[in-house]
Input
Amino acid sequence: MNDKSYFSEEHSDEIVNARMGDDTNPRLRTVMASLVRHLHAFAKDVELRQDEWDVAIDFLTRTGQICTDERQEFILLSDVLGLSMLTDAINNRRPDGATENTVFGPFHVANAPIREMGASINLDGKGESCLFEGRVIDTQGMPITGACVDVWSDDADGFYDVQKPGEIPKWNNRGRFITGPDGTYSFVGIKPVSYPIPDDGPVGRMLGKLGRHPFRPAHLHFMVTAPGHDTIVTHTFVAEDSYLSDDTVFGVKETLIAPFEHVRGDTEWRSPFDFVMVPAGGATRK
Ligand code: BEZ
Ligand code: FE
Output
């Protein structure tokens, strides 16, 4: 570095980071200094051209401009770059046997109706009916009473109710179920179908340019909460779905692929799955 801290290509990141004030929050200092180091290293690595940086700025501008209260294109960008899954992995390291987390996605709606155990969440009557059942237990195998199993899924055409308000009934394929003393849960939904993430914006166009498809393998979303335990945000995936190995948001984990058994009964399918919760604060940090 030169004495006056004028900009130089060679020391670019050090010069920028040296400007941070003494009172900067220590964590903010760590995060921003690392971000600047890696951004500058990236630009040097690819010998970033001016016209390429102009395209990137235009892309980020359009990504911001398409965001509304209902649409979050930056989260979608984070999802398709694998950054959402990486952040989730860093924050939810759990012991073997505990249920793994996966990507939250943009379609959760808080305060879904609390339904009777065994009730149906499928309000539009479309799709192949499926009984979902299992237990919410701790890592010792003990049932967890009073756990809330919050579920949401797309409809038979691959759309969540919030994507087509007025056309799909509100709360279609959504509900919350509270476990009793035996920790069991059950409800009737549909066998989920694979669907594309919203791909009519800048992120979708980026995927196209990268030769990537926008599809997610069929899955059902779960958020399981219980006092004294870490919240599980996860999915179960339909075994044998053709997109399992190339989910566009990288959400698939082997342990989350659930059986879907064809049955002869009130429903056409049955999908058993147990949720294993760790005590609050049980995730490890390096
Ligand atoms: C979802 O599964 O609902 C989802 C996840 C990430 C991006 C878009 C949709
Ligand atoms: Fe989804």
Q: What stands out?
A: The longest strand covers residues 129-138. Helices lie at 12-17, 26-46, 50-65, 73-80, 83-91, 202-209.
